Amino acid sequence: MKILKPVFLFLLLVSGFNLFAQQGKVLEEQNLKSKILKRNVNYAVYLPPDYETANRTYPVVYLLHGYTDDHTGWLQFGEVNRYADKAISDGTIPPMIIVMPNADSSWYINSYDSKEKYEDFFIKEFMPHIEKALRIKAEKKYRGIAGLSMGGYGTLIYTLKHPDLFAAGAALSAAVFPDDQLVSTPDDTYERIFAQLYGRGLKGKDRVNNAWQSNSVLNLVQTKTTDELKSVRYWIDCGDDDFLSKGNCLLHIALTEKNVPHEFRMRDGAHTWTYWRTGITNALQFIGDSFRQK
């Protein structure tokens, strides 16, 4: 019988620990009966590995999906639970709860005709429900938000409109549109995607109305003071081949001109899950750094 060498035994032990490394728990089909929206809203939750064995409270990140996706997107395609497990295990991010709500194609805002009040639902109903149902530190300094595409837009809208609620926002490939892009959008595209939000049957410059202006990321930045904008830490990440790169670059310029510290990344890539999967850990790390005591 051969005697195993100490080095080989050590490697076996390390690999064994990796196999049994703690994993977080995913609650994929949760729902809340919304009085504001008058329907059930599905959501998913990622709980950190020690949630069920510890008694403490945790910081939270609200993670928003993109257009035509739902609350399962970040789990199914983004594999966020796997990336969070690894990042928590190696100390890249602190243990945190990640909440992923379904927003359908609401763009996370209230529609011009008040038929859809998703922003009201999220701020007034969803967040209070989540932060009572789970052991969450319900304070600005322990609350972050992130998202991709439409969810990146929602991230920016909520941090700009409600800076008292979020310590940090991480927007990946955010749907930031300058006025001229909205004006030049083909009529059929506008009616399919934007008409429910800003008004139906609008053409050209008529689209740049009050409903648009009050929900335009670039316009909101211009209406805020530097001190107001500085109250939230911003992470902006968009691929160099992404059709949304122009709007993200303009946002970077607007924040720079207002002397607002922020992190801006333009990596090699397009509007794809490959890009978002390779960016989510850095985004969560940026938010997680806000939660840690200096």
UniProtKB/TrEMBL annotation:
Keyword Electron transport recorded? no
Q: Where is the signal peptide?
A: 1-21
Task: Recall the GO molecular function terms of this protein's record.
Answer: acyltransferase activity, transferring groups other than amino-acyl groups; hydrolase activity
Keyword annotations for this protein? Answer: Hydrolase, Signal
InterPro entries linked to this entry: AB_hydrolase_fold (IPR029058), Esterase-like (IPR000801), Mycobacterial_A85_antigen (IPR050583)
Q: Which domain of life is it from?
A: Bacteria
> What Gene3D superfamilies has UniProt attached to this entry?
alpha/beta hydrolase
- Pfam annotation, one family: Esterase
PANTHER family per record: DIACYLGLYCEROL ACYLTRANSFERASE_MYCOLYLTRANSFERASE AG85A (PTHR48098:SF1), ENTEROCHELIN ESTERASE-RELATED (PTHR48098)
Q: What is this protein called?
A: S-formylglutathione hydrolase FrmB
Query: What does the record give as the organism's lineage?
Result: Bacteria, Pseudomonadati, Bacteroidota, Sphingobacteriia, Sphingobacteriales
